[in-house]
Every structure is written in structure tokens, then in C-alpha cells.
Amino acid sequence: MTDLLETEVLILGCGIAGCAAALTLADAGVPVTVVTRAMAPEESNTYWAQGGIIYQGAEDSPELLATDVIQAGAGHSYGPAVQILAEEGPAAVRRLLLERARVPFDRTDDGKLSLVREGGHTLARIIHATDATGKAIQIALLNVLRDHPNVTLLTGHTAVDLLTPAHHSLNRRAVYAPPACVGAYLFDSERGQVIRCLAKKTILATGGLGQIFLRSTNPAGARGDGVAMAYRAGLRIINAEFVQFHPTAFYQQQGPCFLISEAVRGAGARLVDARGRPFMQKYDPEWQDLAPRDVVARSIHREMLTNDTTHVYLDLRSYIPRETILAHFPTIYERCLQHDVDITEELAPVVPAAHYFCGGVWVDAWGQTDHHHLYAVGEVACTGIHGANRLASTSLLEGLVWGERAARHILPQMRETDTPNAAEIKPWRDEGVEPADPALISQDMSSIKHIMWNYVGLVRTAPRVARALRDLRQLEIEIEQFYRKTRLSDELIGLRNAVRAALVVANAAWQNRTSMGCHYRE
């Protein structure tokens, strides 16, 4: 097999942002190649999003939505981007999800879309597909893309690095040109081979970095691949200290945690202590259980410290009828039942967990980065919408809007953009000869997760973050040496990216000495 693949547009990642970009370009006649490291393209943060996506409430307006977004963002949101989201969001949902992909959102008995309210929203404007909205969106979009003549879907291909002439051109004078991207090196997991994928335009849509923390609601692939590749390529990364912790992930001493949607509290559930007593009124008398996520997560943290407990509880049984729980939260019910907790009869143990990265690669209103021909959309990008903290159910909408906007910006440029010259780009040289030792990778990954959880987690102090930086820097040196002499694997690529992403977050947390939103310094 040749080590070269050429395409018009390369899209790294196939969550809602990557799929929206791919669908918009493909429908306009542009051939696109969509790449995912997962063997099953459904595996993305989008797939696991439970709550819903913002649409439009009965008495809603762009101004009302913008106000809620900015308030949740602790005043740090970028106004023009918020305005774009508020004005273009509902139309994008209608056009791409309701009409083009035909996502089966829940409806009322009279056939209208069922609207719910979530924390931080002044009214009901969220549409959903029971408690598995992301799954419904992901499957519907992929079904359209799989059958599309202009879409090539590559699974089991991990992006190793972005191809930038300044770093990878055989012409040494390329360093004098403005920074640009011409594609990516892709590792084919099945063949164990790296290929050069050259493209006129590249869209980074690799998702988040929750897996650099010990407890996270994110799937295995969310280890900061895009952020790390962007850092190595010299891209600007902003707001990296703002990692949102979801207040309610199912707690178990051993094994992964999973999300219990905010919509559960929107439906009336309360956070309680071991004796079943609600406690949020002590920390936020006005919003109580529907306060913004950073407030709820820190309140839980304080409650755990005060009572010396490892978790708190979510009480559905006392506030939501059994039939409503089964009808509206079937996925959550089944997953809790798998761990011997019947949420219609028992309290659900919950703990905060790393959930959403509010920072990322700086982009403009069209998803353009500061490198020519390179765009970033979705969680890997920072449009400025979320500011210091994300409002519930804005992430899917942001990915949809900016995925489509990036595609719309690319379309008129395609004829004028030159095809990259393959002869000028270095073929990949894999110098590693030793097989990857899974025990070493697992241990290093565990070290990263524990460092980030203990020192750069919900509550940060100067000594903790300083310790994290020292430990992570030393660990990165060890991992880079390991990386250079070891044969490539997806796990090894992920380890290298995870330690770099962790350093990006820790360094930003060190530099920002002011508590804002989900970045809390004691």
C-alpha cells in the first residue's frame, strides 16, 4: 500500500462538528475524507451526550439565550461568537438535524418537539431524544454520511501530527512562509503503517481531553489528541485552564464512571446527603439544584469535605414519578441497574467528573485557526462562547454551527486553493523498533490521570499546580524517549498527546491566578 493519500478536505474526527462540516461540504459536491481513530465511527463525545441540544423556547429570543450563555460563562464569553450561536443555532438544528438527518427527537402528544429546561437556562429550550440525544444525533448523521458519494470514512486511523510545511517540508525555506497546514500523518492501526494524507483544507474536530483526569464522563479517545497536535504545530491555544466538571457522574469505587444527565435535575431530582437531606440551598439559595455546573460541582466537593465522604447522592425517587423516570431516562435507569442501583427505589451515588473542555485552539467566527488552510471545530476549538464555564447543552449546538460555518467558508475557496505538492512533504520515518509495552503505557497514563485529578482538579492551589507542572514535565521527558524508540500504536500516540495536553491545561491553570467559572483557585 502506498504511503500517500490525497483528498480535497481532510476532517479529523466524526462527532457532531466533523459530521456537520462533512455533510455541508459533501452536499455541495466537495469530496471529503473523514478520519477517526476508533474502529466504530460512533465512538465520540457526541455519542455519549445525554441531555440535549438547544433549539428554541416558546417565549425565546437570541437575546435571552445570549444572556444565559454569558452569565454561565462568568462574564468571560466572547460576545460576537455568542451572538452567532444565538442567531444561527435554531436554524442550523432545523436544517441539518431535523430536515437533513431526520434525528428522532422526542415530541409531545400533539407532535410538537418536547422542550425541557436545564441548569442555567431561564426557560425550556432544549430538545432531546430521551436521555440519549447525542447517540440519536450521531447515528443519524453517520447514516447520511455512510451513503454519501462524496464522503470517504476512514476508521481505525489515528492522526499522529498535523502536516505543516514549516516542520515537514523538504524545502528548508518553507519556514519563511506564513504558517499553514497541508494535511496530517495518519497511523493505520490495522496495518501498523503511517501514511501522509494531503489536503487542500484540513478541519480539526478531534474532541476533548477528559481522559487526562482520573474521573471523566468522556470516552477512551478523549485524551487531548487535537490540542497536543496543535501545540506541536505552533497553534495558539487559549482558555485551557477552564475544564468543566460535570456535577453528577455515577460513583463506583472501582471501574469507570458515567454521566447522569443534568436533565434529571431539570425534571426535579435533588442532590442529597447520605441521610437524604437536600443541601444545594446552602450554597445557592436562588438556583439551588439548577445552579450553573461549576457552582454545583464545587458545592458537592465542599459537602464531601465537610462530611468526609467520597460522594453524595441524587434523589430521583422522592421527586419524580416512577413512570416518568422510566419514560424519560431509560438509559440512565438501565446503566444504574447494571451496578445494582434502582433509581426508582434508591438514591444514586454521584461525584463530579471532568466533562467538557471550554478552552482549545483559537479560532475566528468561521472556525479558522492562525494557520492557513486549517480549521478547528467542536470541543477542540475555542470560539470564546463558553468563556470560563459552559452552559448546559451548548456544546452540541456550537459543534453543529461551527462545523457548518467552517464548511461554508471553505466552499468558495476550493477552486483557488492549490493541491499540496506531495514531493515536498517528508514521508514518515518510524525509528521505533521495540514493541509497545502495554504495562508501561498503562502506568504512565494512570500517573497523568492522578496528577491532574489531585493537583489540577476541581479546586486548585499554587503548590498543587506547581507540583503538577514539575511531575508532568519529567513524565513528558520519559514518554518522549519511550515514544522515539517504540513502534507506533494508537495507545502510544495517545499517551504522548495526553501528557502534552495535561501540561497545556496545568500551565494555563498556573498562569491564571484569578478564580473564574470552572477554574477555581484557593
In short:
Helix content is 37%, strand content 15%. The chain has 522 residues and is an alpha/beta fold.
Furnish the topology, listing elements before pairings.
Elements: E1 4-12, H1 16-27, E2 32-35, E3 53-54, H2 62-72, H3 79-100, E4 126-127, H4 133-146, E5 151-154, E6 157-162, H5 165-168, E7 183-188, E8 193-204, H6 225-233, E9 237-238, E10 243-250, H7 262-266, E11 270-272, H8 280-283, H9 293-307, E12 312-315, H10 322-328, H11 330-338, E13 348-357, E14 360-362, E15 374-376, E16 381-382, H12 394-410, H13 438-455, H14 462-485, H15 490-511
Helix pairs in contact: 1-4, 1-12, 2-3, 3-12, 6-15, 13-14, 13-15, 14-15
Q: What do you see in this structure?
A:
The chain is an alpha/beta fold. It contains 15 helices and 16 strands. It has helices at residues 16-27, 62-72, 79-100, 133-146, 165-168, 225-233, 262-266, 280-283, 293-307, 322-328, 330-338, 394-410, 438-455, 462-485, 490-511; strands at residues 4-12, 32-35, 53-54, 126-127, 151-154, 157-162, 183-188, 193-204, 237-238, 243-250, 270-272, 312-315, 348-357, 360-362, 374-376, 381-382. The strands form four sheets. Strands 1, 2, 5, 6, 7, 8 and 15 form a seven-stranded mixed β-sheet that branches. The protein has a four-stranded antiparallel β-sheet with strand order 10-13-12-11, covered by helices on one side. Strands 9-14-16 form a three-stranded mixed β-sheet, with helices on one face. A hairpin with a 4-residue loop joins strand 7 and strand 8 (193-204). The longest helix has 24 residues, at 462-485. It is globular, with a radius of gyration of 22 Å. The termini are far apart. 54% of the residues are buried.
